[in-house]
Amino acid sequence: MSQFLSNYRDFLKQSVKSDRYHGFDMRVLARVEPFLSFLFHDWWRVEMNGLEKLPRDGAALIVGNSGSFLPWPAFMLLYALMSSRQNPRRVHLVADLDWIKDERLHSFLLELGFVPFSSANMKRLFAKGELVALFPEGVPGLAKPYMGRDRLNVFDWVKLLPAVEEGVPIFPLATLGCDEAVPILTNMERTAKFLGLPAFPVTPFFPWLPFPLNLGSLPTKWHMSLIKPLTYEASQDRDELEECAMRQSQFAEGEIQAELNRLLRQQWRHHG
Fold first, then answer.
1. For the segment 175-215, what is each residue's pLDDT rounded down to a tens digit?
2. Three-class SS of residue 174?
3. Superfamily classification of domain 3-271
4. Is residue 5 a contact partner of residue 33, using CB atoms and an 8 Å limit?
């Protein structure tokens, strides 16, 4: 039995109702485990570092670079955490899901652990001591052109505000390789607007190939690095809280970009 499924059984024993946050279902997650395992170990050969920095329990927030119009970094983080031998934790993936009109896809993402973004949802999870992850580059991150790979877009600091209000530790996460896995050639903004989508990125696979081949990716090497938590002081003043959230957002951007640059230099030295 894989470590993922072993941890899955332990989590299931701890929760009679499988903790169905917004439709979350551990059984669905277990069914997709072989595919996630293939992507993690064989296709992208993910090297994950820094998970030991996370607390073994209690609320925490992970913020990272998105790197694709598909949430592959989120899935790889989920798999890494659930497969960990030292510190397995379930993570709730917070994202803007309003633009997803297909009910089956929407329900599937909820069953895997995605949670619609709202301040109330995040605070509810923090109050229960849950681990939350989000990727606050927003729409620009969904359609980042290949020429802009490995360079962060400005984070939406509002996404970090619930964590700052609750005094939750914030862990930056840098992922190198995801931009190259699904190279975005261009973003057809007019088409996206016509279809009611936040973006319509064109890749070597999409929209040319039939489903599911149009969701394909290249077998690039991934490096994921969890960075030490940001430090800040909580406040009761609203203006100070918002200013603090802005600063933490900028700090997280800086830490992630610095780590991406370090990993790139390490990669160049290795190939040089």
1. 999 989 988 888 888 998 888 888 888 888 888 887 777 77
2. strand
3. Glycerol-3-phosphate (1)-acyltransferase (3.40.1130.10)
4. yes
